[in-house]
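Q: Here's a chain of 177 amino acids. Please give me its 3D structure as tokens.
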Amino acid sequence: MFTTLLLSSIANAEVITLPLNSLHGLYTGSFSGPGKKVNANFETAFLNIDEVQIHLIGSYTPGIGHNYNGQTGSVYGQLVASVTGWAIAPRILHPFETMFDLSLRFYPLMNPAEDWSILLDGELDMNFRLSLGTLCDVIDNLPEINVTHAELIVEGTPIPEPCTLLLLGMGGMRIRK
């Protein structure tokens, strides 16, 4: 009885972060392209998941363009992170933003009841890129971002490792003695 109580008290939702160091670096805006593919592995499975976010910190240089009549304009970048079946709303970076510190929430595309099943095994592949947008006819300089910090944040209930469960069970038996 005590062992069961102990296990259920440990299996509460918690916020778990996973650094995504492979996302660090310079990205230049583009109209197409898959972007960088990143693997995230929490090395644990989840019983359930309530929310998934990506946290990004870095610097931003907006692009510059002009119209055929010679009038200059801005070329903006938008951060796009996607996983099969999920997406974040693209985050447009404006010309006045030189630094950014963003937490962007993923949304399931297929299931309105929020289906996080793709991450329940603790692993996923994500695509990340800087997409391009402009009203200019000619682009003189492309926008760029330099990601200096990136992490995936999951709010959910991890499944304890079998070794942890065994130790907890042994501890409960010891207390019971």
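Q: Can you summarize the key feature?
A: The radius of gyration is 22 Å.
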